[in-house]
Design brief:
By secondary structure, the protein is of the alpha+beta class. The chain has four helices and six strands; from the N terminus they run αββββαββαα. The chain has helices at residues 2-30, 80-89, 112-149, 155-188; strands at residues 46-49, 52-55, 60-66, 69-74, 97-98, 103-106. The strands form two sheets. Strands 3-4-6-5 form a four-stranded antiparallel β-sheet, with helices on one face. A two-stranded antiparallel ribbon has the order 1-2. Helix 3 (112-149) packs antiparallel against helix 4. The radius of gyration is 23 Å and the shape is elongated. The N and C termini lie far apart (58 Å).
C-alpha cells in the first residue's frame, strides 16, 4: 500500500502549502494600513545600525497606546536618530516626531481615495493567493496523474483523489476570500 501512502503525502503536502499561502496573504493583509495603529505597519522598515541592516522590531519596542498612535521606543537611545531617519524614508505616509526618548507616529485619517487604493492592493494580493493555490493544485494533480500513468493508482482512484484535491482547493479559496473580506471591511470603516 505504498502508493496509498504516497497519495496521502501528496495531498497532505498540497494542504500544507495551501495553508501557508493563506497565512502569507493574512500576514500581508495585516500590514496594509487601515487608519488604525498596528505595529505590523512598521514591519518592513529596516534600520541601518551597528554596521548592519536590522528590522525595526529588533532595535526598538513598538506599541500602540491608542488607535491613532504608534510609539517606537529604541532599546539604545543612540539609535533614535537613525530610526527616525529610516521612518521618514520608509514612505509610510506617517510623520515621525521625537522627544529624545521615543518616536511618536500619529496615524492620519485615511481619505476615501486612499481607502479605495488599499482595497485594490488587497484584491491584487488575494488574487495572487488564488493563483498560488491553483498552482499548488496543478502540481499535485500532475503528481497524481504520473502515479496513474505508472499504474500506481487506478483511474477511479485518480478521480477520487482529484475530488479531494479540488475540495482542498475550494476550501483554501474560501479562506482567502474570508481574510480579504474581513480586511476590506476594516479598510472601508471610517
Amino acid at each position: 500500500m505504498a502508493d496509498e501512502e504516497d497519495v496521502q503525502l501528496i495531498l497532505l503536502d498540497a494542504e500544507e502549502r495551501m495553508v501557508k499561502s493563506i497565512d502569507v496573504f493574512r500576514h500581508e493583509a495585516d500590514g496594509i494600513r487601515t487608519g488604525r495603529a498596528n505595529p505590523l505597519m512598521l514591519e518592513s522598515v529596516k534600520i541601518e545600525i551597528y554596521g548592519t541592516s536590522m528590522p525595526l522590531n529588533q532595535v526598538a519596542t513598538i506599541t500602540t497606546p491608542d488607535a491613532r498612535l504608534l510609539v517606537v521606543q529604541p532599546f539604545d537611545k543612540g539609535s533614535l536618530g537613525a530610526i527616525e531617519r529610516e521612518l521618514q524614508k520608509a514612505d509610510l505616509g506617517l510623520t515621525p516626531s521625537s522627544d529624545g526618548n521615543v518616536i511618536r507616529l500619529p496615524i492620519p485619517q485615511m481619505t476615501q481615495e486612499r481607502r479605495r487604493d488599499m482595497v485594490k492592493h488587497l484584491k491584487r494580493l488575494k488574487e495572487d493567493t488564488h493563483v498560488a493555490v491553483r498552482n499548488i493544485r496543478r502540481d499535485s494533480l500532475e503528481q497524481l496523474r504520473a502515479m496513474e500513468k505508472d499504474k500506481g493508482i487506478s483511474q477511479d482512484e485518480l478521480h477520487r483523489y482529484q475530488e479531494q484535491l479540488q475540495q482542498l482547493t475550494d476550501l483554501s479559496v474560501v479562506n482567502a476570500d474570508q481574510v480579504g473580506s474581513a480586511k476590506e471591511t476594516e479598510l472601508m470603516e471610517v
